[in-house]
Amino acid sequence: MTTRCSGQFRDVRARAASEVGEGVISTAIAVLIMALLGAAMWLAFQTIFNDAAERTSEQIDLIGG
Questions:
Q1: Three-state SS across 30-56?
Q2: Separation of alpha carbons 1 and 54, rounded Å
Q3: What are the angstrom distances between the C-alpha of 65 and each of 12, 35, 45, 50, 61?
Q4: What is the dihedral of CA 36, 42, 48, 53, to 10 degrees?
Q5: How confident is the model at residue 3 (pLDDT cuts 50, 70, 90)?
Q6: pLDDT at position 12 over 90
Q7: pLDDT > 90: what percent of the chain?
């Protein structure tokens, strides 16, 4: 009985040791994805803001400002 339990414990320990860096890698991938999404959102915001500013300026010029 002792041999069987120690063998199972060894398997669990070996499996845990093979997954040591998994959390760090997953976190790094998530951070990179969030950074890319943030950059894409910033570019979209800049484009929309610049377009709105240009249209506003055009309308002011049409009114005679």
A1: HHHHHHHHHHHHHHHHHHHHHHHHHHH
A2: 80
A3: 76, 41, 27, 19, 5
A4: -160
A5: low
A6: no
A7: 62
Instruction: Report the b/e string of 31-44 with b at 16+ CB within 10 A.
Output: eeeeeeeeeeeeee
Integer Cα distance of 55 and 49 in angstroms: 10
Distance between CA 12 and CA 14 in Å, rounded? 5
What are the tokens at 59? 């309308």
Q: What is the mean pLDDT of residues 22-46?
A: 96
Mean pLDDT within 21-34: 93
Residue 27 has pLDDT above 70, yes or no: yes
- Residue with tokens 């979209």, as numbered in its chain: 44
